[in-house]
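User: structure tokens for this one?
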Amino acid sequence: MEDNKIRLQKFLADAGIASRRKAEELIAAGRVRVNGRVASVGDKVDPKKDSVLFDGKKVKTENKFIYLVLNKPRGYVTTMSDENNRKCVAELILGVDKRVYPVGRLDRDSEGLLLFTNDGEFANAMTHPSKHIQKTYRVSVKPAVTDEHLTVLTSSLMIDGRLTMPAEVRVVANYPDKSILEFTIFEGRNRQIRRLCEEAGLETVRLKRLSIGKLTLGRLAPGEFRELKSDEIALLKRQSGCY
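Assistant:
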């Protein structure tokens, strides 16, 4: 019955294939079949009755959710595979016995805290701009910032036709030729910090995510990952409204 059906992208996210947004791309690319036919974005499925194939393999919903945190080094793209043979974050979480995927992304040249899960609802809640999950970054820029730079950095920016919420920016250290800044943003819009720096006429030398919500990197070394503790998971779910 229709009441038992859910959107195909949600089914794929719950199965640990990809986030909802990425799942839509996979569907549009023709890589998903439902009951023998190529699926379309917007299709619904009954998890108990319909047969769903991804790249020819049957998709099964997960019965155990996994939540990981990785300290991503620079030089890795935030994807589980890459057609250009670039280094990807999947290489850093070897040994995980279930399929997981990144929650949001960090640019190839960015580093720091990156979450992984196979919980589609959690991933969607953590990345949706309307949830206003606080994220903090340490950013090195050239040249040294002025008050005029800071005015631009703390202003709204038009991204994809919509203004961002203003970032909070604190000067950690000033040197003759560069500054170290701490950015706090509340939406996680595409390349928001780098775009703000470009708008201000600053070069982003280094960008590292320090925290998401109340979760910090702690002593996790670059390239290392660990499972989140139950209290950390519960706190993030409360902050994102995912219960």
